[in-house]
């Protein structure tokens, strides 16, 4: 069993507590319970992340603990700041036909746990998305179910839903394979996602 650094354990404790406290969908709760159980056993630790993309300068606006009144969200963001320097921030690949034209320079994603993350494993993918203002992320889908925890204003859609704003501390659950997307207005957005891929042998 690998050793998990204290900063990562602190972040995982804080984020799972907050995901569970804010998720209002029963299937999200079930998914998070599987994720929590799996994370009891650490995976393989990566050496070093590749660092930031230019859009990550917006973290100075959205990933500031003092912005959050809710103690649990503040705790997550504080712990996130301690692990962020180890992340590999990336631009999404795949079909961008439904995205805004500024998508390439207007977003960045990083996995904290999962393939390419600080902790490499296939059963749990826990990561973060950052969107600049006025960016429309592409419609996309994936086999693992997914729970979002949102730390900013910003809108989401999934399946046949229209656009809706979960709000700061809001949560949404994406069932396996459902098409979903997010977009920003005048403010940047930070959102975290937790995917359970442990029931899928090919994940
Ligand atoms: Fe997704």
Describe the model:
The chain is α+β, with helices and mostly antiparallel strands and about 200 residues long. The protein has a single domain (about 5-195), classed as Sandwich (Jelly Rolls). It is built from 5 helices and 10 strands, in the order H-H-E-H-H-E-H-E-E-E-E-E-E-E-E. It has helices at about 5-20, 25-40, 60, 70-85, 105, and strands at about 45, 90, 105-115, 120, 125-130, 145-150, 155-160, 170-175, 180-185, 190-195. The strands form 3 sheets. The protein has a 6-stranded antiparallel beta sheet. Strands 1-4 form a two-stranded antiparallel ribbon. The chain is globular and about 40 Å long. The protein starts with 5 loop residues before the first helix and ends in a 7-residue tail after the last strand. The mean pLDDT is about 95. Fe (ii) ion (FE2) binds near residues 140 and 180.
The ordered H/E elements are HHEHHEHEEEEEEEE
Class in CATH?
Mainly Beta
Bound molecules: fe (ii) ion
Which CATH-level-2 architecture? Sandwich
> Measured on Cα atoms, how large is the radius of gyration?
16 Å
Coarse morphology:
globular
**How big a fraction of the residues is strand?**
15-25%
Q: On the 0-100 scale, what is the average pLDDT?
A: 96
Note the gap between the termini. 21 Å
Biggest pleated sheet: 6 strands, antiparallel
The number of helical elements comes to 5
Q: Low-confidence stretches at least 5 residues in length (pLDDT < 50)? A: none
In which order are the strands of the major sheet placed?
A: 2-3-5-10-6-8
For the secondary structure, the number of strands is: 10
User: By helix and strand content, what is the structural category?
Assistant: alpha+beta
The CATH H-level superfamily is: Jelly Rolls
Q: Tell me the number of structural domains.
A: 1
State the helical fraction: 25-40%
CATH topology: Jelly Rolls
């Amino acid at each position: 069993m690998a050793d998990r650094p204290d900063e990562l354990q602190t972040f995982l404790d804080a984020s799972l507590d907050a995901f569970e406290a804010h998720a209002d969908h029963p299937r999200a709760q079930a998914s998070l319970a599987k994720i929590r159980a799996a994370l009891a056993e650490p995976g393989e630790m990566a050496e070093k992340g590749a660092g930031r993309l230019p859009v990550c300068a917006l973290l100075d606006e959205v990933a500031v603990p003092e912005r959050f009144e809710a103690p649990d969200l503040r705790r997550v963001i504080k712990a996130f700041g301690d692990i962020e320097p180890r992340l590999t921030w990336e631009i999404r690949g795949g079909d961008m036909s439904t995205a805004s034209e500024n998508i390439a320079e207007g977003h960045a994603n990083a996995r904290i746990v999962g393939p390419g993350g600080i902790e490499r494993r296939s059963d749990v993918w826990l990561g973060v998305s950052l969107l600049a203002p006025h960016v429309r992320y592409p419609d996309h889908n994936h086999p693992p179910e997914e729970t979002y925890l949102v730390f900013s204003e910003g809108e989401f859609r999934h399946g046949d839903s229209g656009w809706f704003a979960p709000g700061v501390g809001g949560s949404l659950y994406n069932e396996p394979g459902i098409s979903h997307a997010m977009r920003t207005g005048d403010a940047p957005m930070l959102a975290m996602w937790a995917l359970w891929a442990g029931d899928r042998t090919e994940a």
